[in-house]
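Human: Not sure, check this?
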Amino acid sequence: MYPEETQQLSRLLVERISLKTNQKNKSKTFTHWEDATARYLVAESPQDTRRVLVLVTYRPTQLLPLYMASARRAVKLVNAVVALVTANAYISTLGGGHFLCRHLNQSTLLAKLQIGISMGLQDPVLESKCRVNLMYNALQLGKFKRARRILRREERVAEQLDSSELRKVCHAATVYLDKMDRLHKEEMLFHKNGGRPATLHDNFYRQRIVRMTNSLNVKQVEGHKLNLDAVPMVYSFMSKTVALVSTLLAALGSANAELETVKLSHPYGSSAEVFLFGAHVKSFRAAMDPNLDVLFMSNDSYLDGVNPIRGGIPVVFPNFGGAPGFPNHGFARITNWTLAGVEEAADKNSPSVATFTMAASNSTRQMWPVEFELEYEVKLYANQLETALHVHNTFTEQIEFHTLLHNYLWVDDSQNEGVVVSGLKGVDYFDQVAKVNKTETREFISFNGSVQTGNTYLNAPDQVVATIKGVQFMDRTVTVQKAGFITGDAGQNQVETQTDAVVWNPGAERAKKLEDFGDEEYINMVAIEPGRVSVKQPLPAGQTFTLQQNITVTTL
């Protein structure tokens, strides 16, 4: 009938949801059963007689009316098209199955999980459909600009892939988005002209649009009279792959929790925070001004434990940019690392240290069939943060890779020479925007608000300096000092290697196309990124490559 593994996975999902929910709601009673097409879980509370149903199906195209009895809310699936009544009933498709969410933030989380899974499967059409799903979520949360930005991107993808199916998905989404946008503007105008306070919540929009469409008949479902009037909201054409479901289940356990963070402090008053996800340095506050975070973090960044984090210091490995079969900028930044240890500073002259590790796994071997171990050290001083990535080649042959520490630095205003970067005059570089090789002639590099700056400086000097004019905070310099070297088995015979430096600011035009980056946030950041990216770094078997940097803050 259906693969036994698929049925086991769905059973596990239902049991885990039941256990987790029961721990928080001890007064609820749970019933779950299965038939030829699905497994079900119903949670009932005697206090409010509310019934919540969770469903995992084996056959997504079957008509399955679902409901929450007390609220008379329903969801209907017809040929993988989802129709729903309110924002509190939302379907997100999970690899041949469907999961009913009660709240939009849950469905947004699952939509992001879908994107991460589809990227891992290297299925661009599936990934694009998942992003359209995310567009609907953004729309229902009132983020019209973000929704339209996502949709424009997927329309371009549909043309590039020449996918008629994806074009239909985008067309349906465009029609709905235009209707929602028009209603939003009408309501805002009504409010502006002295009408009643604007009813801008999701139910208002949906009720208005329902009246513009052909109503479905009122139907009886298990004795409950349910109004199934709805507008198609999400077109979920997910593959029936056990791999997709199992990947979801692996992520589900931690998806609803905040990302685990390691905090460091120093006797002088400095502090740092590091996510275990990606061994990603989130924050660095120097003792000279603990109110100022030296690092920039986007307010629109994903923090779901699946998608890359925008800001801080992402660890790029083993590829820089896109590469066939690899996530953009590699898998290290989207992998949960292990905390190997934390040492608090013994005195004011010594650092507080956190060490993180990760190693080759079945998932990495599918993309890159080699053996390796990574060790990442984060050392906090009074006004300095030192990070060092050690790549150990535990394979039987030489390996080659890119690696980079993608520092996002906070600046008060990147425009009007509010920040200038120095130390690169005379260095050859590749202009990633113009796609040409150049030589740097400027003593001080500044940034044009509308145009993206993306330069890779080849064999760059060991020290690059950002001089930042203070607006909210004092004038300061942030110096990034870098080094790269290879050591042998016993840690001896250290040999220095060439390292590069990337200077990046997306500018206004590029910022508008980044869905995890605010339209105006380019004003408050500049990236200075040491690494080995112009060519791949070769590393013989048994040896270790180290990429090290010191970020030092001083006042002017």
